[in-house]
């Protein structure tokens, strides 16, 4: 019997091995299709390591950042061949979306100064494949309220997509620590410091704050504001590294990429390497483990209040993980989650999947919670008017407050990428402010025609890129800025 089991196990292993080899062979073959890799997909600029970031200051980081952008100009933009010198390529100096043409290149780290002495500081951390541009409107809101706003470009971003083929999440966290050190230096030992994190930046903000619970030398933020935070990712990200294995052979270098697309967005990569997906999984896995461990050890009492904005439909991060992994562990400290429901107007009810219609109900746990919950939704079925339905912490009584914002008839839900952008954003807005021009207006694109005719990724075009409820987000963050906060119990340099 034992020998029979061993024999079965041996053959099972052989079958699995053959299956995996077949998958890798198919992946290698598939990676050979299409155009060869472009310079921005092969050249990797030299970023600081995590140890080097920890050893430098803000001015040193900016100097190193400048060297990286100089490298991209000399090694990529100045070496493009004739076929790549087109007006739809952000790396071509003659293109209207070439970032260095703009008054300020929002791919870079920045500090926005208030009109007088700062009353506090805010550190803003952008998302994966993104740049500091994504949080500039929120940064300006803080600036107007007297805060110095520090937008950090985390390594591997804002330059060329190839930079993400080698970037590691500890480098991103080191940049977060650096920005917090700079914030504390700018405002002294007692002024409030907020952190705003979008997507992957949300994961970094939470990870840093958990580290501050365990290490007294780290400055504890006074408040966290999260937008579409990457607390959990899809199961595919866990095994994304396997998809890149054929790239170990130079002939199959394209297997290191999940998407290879034209780069027409001046402030975000369209191409997406396997390593980027792998790093998000590693970061969220460490984050989840640390959060659960600190909860078991009753070490989360020092966490600051967290205000999170999350669409119930999110194709990039796990919305359930935000509720079940993060919020389920929070102390009763004044935290709140704001959820944006799907549009239940009759125009979409026959087209929305059942899972989309049930997403809100599946997210919210029953009974009173230690945090406040607000749901932005239609006032009623087949009604474009909206309300904010709020359930206080430790209560099951919900109140509805009418909003002045209607759910647009042509929008069936929000998206992961929409939350930080107002409708008048010059790049992503549906009604862009024309006083700024970044060479393309992605939020107004609604093309119709045959597949393959445009350079645009039509899946991305269908995805809403700005938030019709942004005035509500703006007001809620403004309220957070106005609320009095106690200085952190422990602060570091």
Structural description of this entry:
By secondary structure, the protein is an alpha/beta fold. The protein has 14 helices and 12 strands. α6 links the parallel β4 and β5. It starts with a helix and ends in an 11-residue tail after the last helix.
Beta-strand share of residues:
5-15%
Structural class: alpha/beta
Regions with pLDDT < 50 over 5+ consecutive residues? Answer: 19-33, 487-493
Biggest sheet statistics = 10 strands, mixed
Number of separate strands: 12
- In the CATH hierarchy, the architecture of the domain at 32-303 is 3-Layer(aba) Sandwich
Shape: globular
- The strands making up the biggest β-sheet line up spatially as 1-3-2-4-5-8-9-10-11-12
So how many helices?
Answer: 14
Fourth-tier CATH superfamily name of the domain at 32-303:
Alpha/Beta hydrolase fold, catalytic domain
């Amino acid at each position: 019997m034992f020998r029979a089991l061993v024999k079965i196990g041996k053959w099972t292993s052989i079958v699995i091995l053959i299956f995996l080899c077949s998958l890798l062979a198919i992946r290698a073959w598939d990676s050979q299709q299409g155009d060869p890799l472009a310079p921005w997909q092969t050249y990797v600029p030299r970023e600081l390591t995590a140890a080097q970031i920890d050893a430098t200051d803000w001015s040193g980081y900016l100097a190193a950042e400048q060297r990286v952008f100089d490298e991209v100009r000399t090694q990529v933009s100045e070496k493009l061949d004739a076929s790549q010198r087109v007006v739809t390529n952000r790396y071509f100096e003659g293109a209207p979306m070439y970032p260095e043409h703009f008054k300020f290149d929002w791919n870079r780290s920045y500090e926005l100064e208030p009109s007088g002495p700062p009353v506090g500081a805010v550190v803003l951390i952008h998302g994966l494949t993104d740049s500091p541009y994504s949080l500039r409107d929120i940064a300006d809101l803080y600036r107007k309220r007297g805060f110095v706003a520090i937008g950090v470009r985390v390594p591997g971003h804002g330059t060329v997509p190839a930079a993400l083929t080698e970037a590691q999440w500890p480098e991103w966290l080191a940049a977060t620590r650096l920005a917090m050190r700079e914030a504390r230096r700018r405002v002294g030992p007692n002024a409030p410091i907020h952190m705003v994190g979008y997507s992957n930046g949300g994961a970094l903000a939470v990870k840093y704050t958990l580290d501050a619970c365990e290490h007294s030398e780290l400055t504890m933020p006074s408040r966290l504001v999260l937008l579409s935070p990457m607390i959990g990712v899809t199961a595919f990200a866990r095994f994304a590294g396997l998809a890149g294995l054929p790239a170990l052979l130079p002939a199959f270098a394209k297997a290191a990429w999940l998407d290879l697309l034209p780069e027409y967005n001046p402030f975000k990569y369209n191409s997406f390497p396997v390593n980027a997906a792998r790093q998000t999984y590693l970061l969220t896995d460490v984050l989840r483990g640390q959060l659960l461990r600190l909860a078991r050890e009753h070490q989360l009492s020092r966490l600051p209040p967290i205000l999170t904005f999350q669409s119930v439909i999110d194709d990039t991060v796990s919305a359930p993980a935000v509720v079940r992994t993060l919020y389920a562990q929070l102390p009763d400290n004044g935290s709140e989650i704001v959820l944006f429901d799907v549009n239940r107007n009759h125009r979409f009810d026959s087209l929305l999947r059942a899972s989309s219609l049930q997403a809100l109900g599946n997210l919210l746990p029953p009974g009173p919670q230690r945090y406040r919950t607000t749901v932005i939704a239609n006032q009623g079925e087949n009604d474009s008017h909206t309300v904010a339905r709020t359930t206080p912490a430790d209560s099951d009584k919900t109140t509805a407050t009418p909003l002045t914002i209607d759910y647009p008839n042509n929008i069936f839900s929000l998206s992961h990428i929409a939350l930080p952008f107002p409708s008048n954003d010059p790049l992503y807005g549906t009604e862009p402010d024309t006083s700024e021009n970044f060479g393309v207006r992605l939020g107004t694109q609604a093309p119709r025609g045959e597949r393959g005719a445009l350079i645009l990724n039509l899946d991305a075009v269908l995805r809403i890129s700005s938030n019709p409820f942004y005035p509500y987000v703006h007001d809620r963050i403004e309220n957070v800025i106005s609320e009095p906060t106690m200085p952190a119990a422990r602060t570091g340099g």
